[in-house]
Amino acid sequence: MSMNSQGRPTSPSAPSAQPAIKTVSGSRGLQQREDLIFETGSTTKTGVDLPAPKGGMDRLGGVTRKKSVGLPGLSEPEAVRHYVRLSQQNYAIDLGLFPLGSCTMKHNPRLNEKVARMPGFADIHPLQPQSTVQGALELIDELATWLKTLTGMPAVAMSPKAGAHGEFCGMMAIRGALIARGEIATRTRVLVPASAHGTNPATAVQCGFKVDEIKADARGRVEMDDLKSKLEDSHDIAGIMLTNPNTCGLFETDIREIADLIHEAGGYFYCDGANFNAIVGRVRPGDLGVDAMHINLHKTFSTPHGGGGPGAGPTVLSEALADFAPVPFVVEEDGVFHLVEQRSGEGSDAFGRLCAFHGQMGMFTRALAYMLSHGADGLKQAAEDAVLNANYLQSRLKTVMTPAFDGYCMHEALFSDAFTAEGIETLDIAKAMIDEGYHPMTMYFPLVVHGAMLIEPTETESKAELDRFCESLLSIAEKARAGDQSLKSAPYLAPKRRLDETQAARKPELRWSEPDKIAAE
């Protein structure tokens, strides 16, 4: 919520701490050194030589290129090797455990990919006549039914394309309800816990509301006394945006009381569903008093996310908000599916349209394939295994590291830097993890925990892989506790050494220049 006041140097320390082995080529074993494509290729050559065209009419209207565009030319082997070598410098869920907390980087079953590529799903167009895409519309409708059943909510907007987009949808539905009540001018305040995802307050402001932060208590949950004090004068309360399980990896045990208090104040309860992976099949948000909640299909139901593909953030709505769901939405009549796309008739109360078309069809297909292959009992087991894995990881790591809060966690384990010796930062631990072959965990988030390290193993990791990860992290944690200064210069084995990330962020070099030009400048 607030800016992190903890300073942390990101430039490398002791330059003397260099790897023991250097190679002439710059490669390290099977990991090839690779320069920028501008350094590899030459602007004076091309990978394909074509003769100048003879005859014919110039149809470029006098804008024919008269000088080189400055792009390097590569042969086919050079181009292929360049990108293959770069790909070997990436970390991926197919390579190893991806410990990012609050992200749910779980395995994407290949079955989902096969189904998404089936003709009739992969090759349709949103502007086709609806009579020719009945199967796709039925799929959207069936997926919507699963989402409503799993959440205990009567309506769902399918078009939001990511988590923050889903938040925007839910808050716009709340705004629409307040407009219908004639209270949009007075109900302008939205309560947001200190441990909320950063998109929550941003979304509230984007929708025209003012944000009022609620403190976290010593257990990492909403401070109820602070919440109640902010509701004493409730005439301007529009609602609350709360994540459950929250960003500390904990279930908000007072959530039912929170919902009742908000409703008594005349507001609506928005729940951030980014962590739904921890409670699917165990808890229905609708039973907790939630009015709106987005669901990250790309986290809970395994569809690729991040660099792996677009997200999808359907938003379920309570009876109080169902009429304000955005268009378009799918309706079935006598076995025929059609889209309601206008704010008239069935869609007359809709707050509007979120995007040009109907959502992310590829993500819908993958998510439904995941649901059907697991079944309701399998989804429940996945949530239980995610919680089990996180608690196993917390139990093993707390022998050296310091859990941020007492007791069991949900789907992710949160640690503080209290165990580290003076001068050793969370950043140093994260960089050392690269040498062990792991992507670092989420660092310095949530901000309510000093030097936070948030780790989410998900349900897809085996005990053997969890043990391998724990042994690696424990070895680093022991060094951090002992004040081992070698951590300050990690990583040693990565393709590139530690960079000055602060300078890179403040003064990024976005355009390549030839070395002689740089020297001249």
Automatic annotation (TrEMBL):
Any one Gene Ontology molecular-function term assigned to this protein's record: glycine dehydrogenase (decarboxylating) activity
Q: Where is this region: Disordered?
A: 1-64, 482-521
What does the UniProt keyword field contain? Oxidoreductase, Pyridoxal phosphate
* Comp. bias (Basic and acidic residues): 497-521
Which InterPro entries does this entry report, sorted A to Z?
A: Aminotrans_V_dom (IPR000192), GDC-P_C (IPR049316), GDC_P (IPR020581), PyrdxlP-dep_Trfase (IPR015424), PyrdxlP-dep_Trfase_major (IPR015421), PyrdxlP-dep_Trfase_small (IPR015422)
Give every Aminotransferase class V domain span: 188-306
Could you say which EC number(s) this protein's record lists? 1.4.4.2
Protein name, as recorded:
glycine dehydrogenase (aminomethyl-transferring)
Question: From what organism does this protein derive?
Answer: Henriciella marina
Print the organism lineage: Bacteria, Pseudomonadati, Pseudomonadota, Alphaproteobacteria, Hyphomonadales
